[in-house]
Amino acid sequence: MTATPLTGAASRFNPRLDRRHRIGKVFEIICFLGTIAALILLVLLMIRVFSEGLARLDRNAFFAYPSQLNPQEAGFRASLLGSLWILILTVMMALPIGVGAAVYLEEYAPKNRFTEILELNITNLAGVPSVVYGMLGLGLFVRLMRLGPVVLAGAMTTALVILPVIIVAAREAIRAVPQSFRQASYGLGATRWQTISNHVLPYAVPGILTGTIIAMSRAIGDAAALLVVGGLVFVQADPGLFSRFTVLPLQIFFSIGQPQLAFRQLAAAGIIILLIVLLVLNATAIYLRSRFERQDRS
Amino acid sequence: MQRLFTYVAVLKDKIALNHHHLCLEVGMSATPLIPVLAATNVDVYYGSFHAVRGVNMKIPANRVTAFIGPSGCGKSTLLRSFNRMNDLIQGARVTGVVEYHGKNLYDPDVDATEVRRRIGIVFQKPNPFPKSIYENIAYGPRLSGFKGDMDELVEQTLRQAVLWDEVKDKLHQSGQSLSGGQQQRLCIARTLAVQPEVILMDEPCSALDPISTLRIEELIKELKQKYTIIIVTHNMQQAARVSDMTAFFNAELDDKGIRYGRLVEFDRTERIFNSPKEKETYEYVTGRFG
User: Fold this and answer.
1) pLDDT surpasses 50 at B19
2) What is the pTM (predicted TM-score) of this model?
3) Is residue A287 classed exposed, middle or buried when 0-12, 13-18 and 19+ CB atoms within 10 A define those classes?
4) Between B178 and which of A275, B97, B182, B255 could a Cys-Cys bridge form, CB atoms 3.0 to 4.6 Å apart?
5) Nearest by CB to A187, which of B120, B130, B174?
């Protein structure tokens, strides 16, 4: 695909078009390979999980309690409910606190050395392994506040895990609100809160929801923090706010550890359930986000 | 804010006394001008940067006052100190006195929120909210607890901004779906809806095409019947066309080599353009620099 040089081209240029296009092509191929590699891994995982678990993905898998004696008919009822309890409580706690912190940092706090250090630390916290938060939760909520290793303590700990993620995402979303809207609002005689509640937050909602999706995905897949706080791997009762609990990743972990084939199949079915829950949550958040975006434009 | 209103009443008499003085100052004798805003020794700082220095001027009521001058001469900065928009910029500080009907806007008992309702502002780039045309207008009055008939107010302000006929059938469409010139008129209408007395315009036409610009200029001439208007513009023809008074600002270097803005000359527009007192003004309006 060598292009013929156009006549009358100035001789002071050395376009080397072939070389420039070739470099572009190489880079495109590298990017494509990256995408394919990620896709292949995902497909392999899916094939493995589905071939093993699909047969076991029956009514029992969702609605039966786990059993050590009878894995063929056992299910994930306790851990599914546990995961939902923890997840919903976590979001209920982390979302308002996280958005509040983000609003404060972006709209109220002065920009100085102190807030800069604060920002850096929050960003760093988003990358801290969840087992560290587990230690904090164990010390603070389970022992000091004497909640015990219950659902509430687990949810509070998971909230700590995802709080930095939500703060960072919400700040990005708030910062993306055009300054001109704030100026127009203040210019009409709006107070700070009127400006935040009428313009900044509504405009930032889609971005905040995107961050929340990521945070929720992290929360539901997280096992380490809950294990430290006192999550069990085997529970045969429905959870409540102050009961002991297990969650999907923990029960999957338990099932994989068993030698029998039936448990391995059960684990695969559990992974599929986890993926379904994740998919439903993400779909809901995406639906909400697009609804808010449309509202904005109309 | 109650105090500001009573001040207005009390000061009406005082203002009357000031007429004569002001008339002399701006070289007018036929029409007495009532100052709405008066700046005395106003300096504006951004952090340690001393952006505008020593401005003294009186803005007459129901007139269009234009601020002209090269980039970086502080005209927008000064404009924004007239309704305390500079408060929103971290590190910005205003010293001196900006009086609105004799009351210093920077007194501790003055609420900047109420100042901005009475002294509205229109920005360089049209910035309607991502809401319907109706909601764009209704937002301001609602903030300040408007109790009257909102539909009527919306229609009235859109008519004032000469936008009603173009939008009356699509009041519930997004304000951002309008053309640039319509958006800017919507922004002007939005400002009118909170019933200000003064309207500050910060290069309101610089993002618009010539025809939209002309329509805004006609609107400005219309609006001065009821409002006092201050317009910052880079376009000298525009200043000559719409304004009664013109203030020429220039950027200068101080002894440390730092650029700052200074008011050079403030007079009737035809004087500024035809027989300015200062050489700098003459050079600027004749296009020697800037």
Assistant:
1) no
2) 0.82
3) exposed
4) B182
5) B120
